[in-house]
Structure prediction request, 157 residues.
Amino acid sequence: MKLISELFFLICKLFTKVKPNEQIKLKQMKHFPFKRYKYLMWCSYAIYREDKPHLAEMDKRSRTHETIHYLQALDKKFWIVFYASYLWNWIKRNPFSKLSYIKSRYELEAYAKEDDETYPSRREKNAHKKFYLTDEDKKMTLSSVIKARIKQRYKDL
Prediction:
């Protein structure tokens, strides 16, 4: 029953407009996000699993990362448009690869700038379009190496 109520919440929020200047709220769920993720940004909620209560206090890096996703959604105006674009971006990078998540332009921007707390306040509209992988990056097989290269490449942006 809990799964159904969680899915209902997620689906209902999906069809709302992204509101400017909204604060990210924490929400605990039993089934989401999937186990390998700390948080799932969903319609201005940073969702974390109830079996990880230590995540109830969001660290600065995670807050910045999720705020960047919120700002990316704000660029699209509607949550459903953002998630459709995010999904398409993921599909283009081979959804069967474990690295398709990190190779998404949305994630590249968020990981590249998650250590810079001032970035969200100076982020340009559609900034995620500036973040890309080189052919050499695309050959890499470790997400930690990709994250390090991306952070280095875009540190001055």
